[in-house]
Write a structure and sequence with these properties.
Keywords: Isomerase, RNA-binding. The chain is of the alpha+beta class. Helices cover 16% and strands 30% of the residues. The two termini are 29 Å apart. The mean pLDDT is 94.
């Protein structure tokens, strides 16, 4: 991807310009590209997405523009539903799709696809999966469930299991190492050591996956990861900390592959409204041999 970003503040002499004209004036984009960026959701005015090309911007207003000319067509992938009732929706997120809007678009992500697939729903999101990660994602469908899910994820009162494939064996272990953004890293990434920005505690349990758990999957060194915290890139960072980066994880030094071998596999939680025990599972079908 060739993502380009600009941030600027509107000047008094810009007051009579349409937003697409202003973007063309203050960035390297043509008016046509500016309108495309607006259409895709890549323009923010005072940190809110704006899609109206004719909008007039007051002097002193911050404008952020992100444009990726290599974005593929807006996907039409049908999102598989794992579980649904009156209060929650659990889906199996495909790999390669962001959970929610990125800098450059709010039309290529899971929430946008679900809105197209289920326009009757107003969904609330409480956890995310990395773009390359597939698997279980649970969303609330109404305010009561939203409150309950928020409490469950904030209180860590659930069991989240992932499957990952690594390049060498790993014995069962627990990693308790803080995770923070690495200062000055380009591209941006996280770590457990070095000059970390706002490091936060993180705990992950690892164990080798059993033959039964990996039956039918591509042969290799498979592990099960249970996360007790929800830090960005947590499993990826903790495995890198152990010298066992995930295959296909080029950001953290994993072996070359056409995919990130990480899947949100099982989720155990109490139903946010009924209190019933839920055990949800998304089979890792994309890793089958």
């Amino acid at each position: 991807m060739t993502l380009r970003k600009w941030t600027f503040t509107a000047d008094p002499e810009d007051a009579e310009l349409r937003l697409d004209q202003l973007i063309a004036k203050r960035t390297e984009l043509s008016r046509r590209a500016a309108r495309e960026a607006l259409k895709l959701g890549g323009v923010q005015v005072d940190r809110k997405r704006v899609k109206v090309a004719g909008k007039l911007i007051k002097p002193g207003t911050e404008v952020r523009v992100a444009f990726d000319p290599d974005l593929p067509p807006v996907p039409t992938t049908a999102i598989p539903v794992v579980f649904e009732d009156a209060w929650i929706l659990a889906v199996d997120k495909p790999a390669g799709i962001a959970t929610q809007g990125t800098w450059a678009t709010d039309r290529h992500d899971l929430l946008a696809l679900l809105k197209t697939q289920r326009p009757d729903l107003n969904l609330f999101l409480h956890h995310r999966l990395d773009q390359g990660t597939s698997g279980l994602l649970v969303l609330a469908k109404d305010p009561k469930a939203n409150k309950g899910l928020a409490a469950a994820f904030a209180g860590r009162d659930l069991e989240k299991l992932y499957l990952a494939r690594i390049s060498a064996p790993l014995e069962a272990c627990t990693v308790e190492a803080p995770i923070g953004r690495l200062r000055g890293a380009d591209p941006g990434r996280f770590g457990c050591e070095g000059d970390l920005i706002d490091p936060k505690s993180a705990r992950t349990d690892f164990r080798p996956a059993t033959a039964e758990e990996t039956a039918g999957l591509t042969p290799g060194y498979w592990i099960v990861a249970r996360i007790h915290t929800g830090r960005t890139h947590q499993i990826r960072v903790h495995l890198t900390h152990l010298g066992r980066p995930i295959l296909g994880d080029s950001l953290y030094g994993g072996g070359a592959s056409d995919r990130l071998w990480l899947h949100a596999w099982r989720l155990g939680l109490q139903h946010p409204v009924t209190g019933a025990d839920l055990r949800l599972e998304a089979p890792p079908t994309r890793f089958q041999a």
